[in-house]
Amino acid sequence: MPVVVSMVVFGPPSAVFQESLRCLSAQDYPAIQHIFFLVGVDEPEQASYELLIAELLPAATVSTVVGNPGYGPTQNEAARLVEGDTGLFLFMHDDVAMAPDAVSQMVMEMSRSNAGVVGPKLLNWNDASILQHVGMAVDRCGEVDSIVLPNEKDQEQHDAVADVFCLPSACMLVRADLFRVIGGFNPAISFGGEELDLCWRVHLTGGRVVVVPSATARHD
Known about the structure:
Elements: E1 4-10, H1 17-25, E2 32-39, H2 43-56, E3 61-65, H3 71-80, E4 88-93, E5 96-98, H4 102-113, E6 117-124, E7 131-133, E8 136-138, E9 144-146, E10 162-163, E11 171-175, H5 176-181, H6 194-204, E12 209-219
Parallel strand pairs: 1-2, 1-4, 2-3, 6-12
Antiparallel strand pairs: 4-11, 5-12, 6-7, 6-11, 8-9, 10-12
């Protein structure tokens, strides 16, 4: 059973962060560790956020990031703290609430599909009957195209495991060895597009990028 290391970049945490935290602590996958990176939060607020995390995930590591280097570079720093290439990295935003079996479903499908990157079916935060993402396609100009329509209802029409070009960085599970081989997120991308660049390079290695609809998560 591979160890999953969840890496959450938060700061200042959104209004839904506490719910996201509860859902992360409720995961039924037994081999999971947690790292939180606090970005752009004043020192007086830092203790309260650390307390909130400690209440639900007492073994979690919380680090403060000076300035705002961006999502990708911050996650690269998180990955450098973890030794070994046999585990899995779960990269997350602070506004994602996973179903209790989401991590288990993604790990199982990653093994079955021999995938390099997998992600859940993302649903609307306030209305889980609305689809947000089941992976993304890319056109000939390199523009990202959503596979679902705006406000498309989830009627299980996208519930087959499928290869996709790209997955949202909001919640993606990546093999640690592959992440290190491709050099992690592009440090030159500080905001937006980091997931497209990462998945593109995964494809160039021959790796698979797969959406796992049996794993669900709400995203604000």
